[in-house]
Amino acid sequence: MNRSRLADLSLLAVALMWGCTFLIVQHAVHALPPLMFNAVRFIGASVLLAMIITLFYRKQWLNISWRMAGHGLLLGLLLFAGYGLQTMGLLYTTTSNAGFITGLSVILVPFLSMFLFRSKLSKSIWISAALAAAGLYLLTFSSGGMSLGKGDALILLCAIAFALHIGFTGVFAPRYPALPLAALQLGATGLFSLAASLAFEATGSAGELTHTILLPKVFYALLISIGPTSAFAFWIQTVAQQHTTPARVAVIFAMEPVFAAATGVIFAGEQLGWIALLGCASILAGILLSELNPGETSRQSPRSTKLQETSS
């Protein structure tokens, strides 16, 4: 199996982790405010990656430069903007609208790749993105028509932020070792989230906050979010984007709501109608088309190969 296929499978595993833990996180943020949840989640993930570097890859600390720190800060800001705008948008619009508009990054990424990063995209990747976007619409609005609320503009900005994060990760990932870059961006995301939480959320006293964090549904959600779905997920994404294109990443990440829907059916007794199932099939078709396309090659360069070898 070549590195491009392995990268795509790894990204699919990330989408699986995110989708399967959606219910757990959703229950947790009813007790712990979302921005504070993200602050603990991403700061914890950054600390975990820093510990891994210190214990097993200590020489990688020598690769950190001001330029790398700046790029990590930019990635962290975009990631924070995506999550923060999504949280604010959910106050003024429906979950269905938010899910679909956020998923529009699957279409935005190819546009951004073409206009900002001068990437040449084949027709099949555009068809893949369109299939995924259509599938997201069918999956999200299978119970009714689309009705836009005033928070949808915020969610659209969220989708742009996520699309830019994927695009810039594709630019920066081949330049630096994956572990330090992932640690830097997650630390920045956590600190931005902490500042926003202290400014806009009512988290109570330190004792009340500690009590909330130690609630079983919050504590276990944070453990899962800090490790598998943050530290390891963004580490995997940073490594994988050395070997695949941002457009394909966006198409693969469109599987997240499919996995979330499957989790709801299995563990929460939710039901999917035939329109939702058709949406899932459309997303899967988009991914298969992008994988079968011989024209989409890896973004890997000799420099990225060298960095990937030193990060292992």
Summary keywords:
single chain, 312 residues, mainly alpha, globular
3D architecture notes:
With 312 residues, the protein is an all-alpha fold. The chain has one domain. 76% of the residues lie in helices and 0% in strands. The chain has 15 helices and no strands. It has helices at residues 3-20, 22-28, 34-56, 66-89, 95-103, 105-115, 123-140, 152-172, 178-200, 206-213, 216-240, 246-253, 256-268, 274-292, 302-310. Helix 1 (3-20) packs antiparallel against helix 11, helix 6 (105-115) crosses helix 8 (152-172) and helix 6 runs antiparallel to helix 12. It starts with a helix and ends with a helix.
Q: How are the SSEs ordered, and which strands pair?
A:
Blueprint (H helix, E strand, L loop, with lengths): L2 H18 L1 H7 L5 H23 L9 H24 L5 H9 L1 H11 L7 H18 L11 H21 L5 H23 L5 H8 L2 H25 L5 H8 L2 H13 L5 H19 L9 H9 L2
Helix pairs in contact: 1-11, 1-12, 1-13, 2-11, 3-9, 3-11, 4-8, 4-9, 5-7, 5-8, 6-8, 6-12, 7-12, 7-14, 8-12, 9-11
- String of helices and strands: HHHHHHHHHHHHHHH
**Structural class by sheet pairing and helices:** mainly alpha
β-strand percent reads under 5%
**How many β-strands, per DSSP?**
0
Brief characterization of the structure:
The chain has 15 helices and no strands.
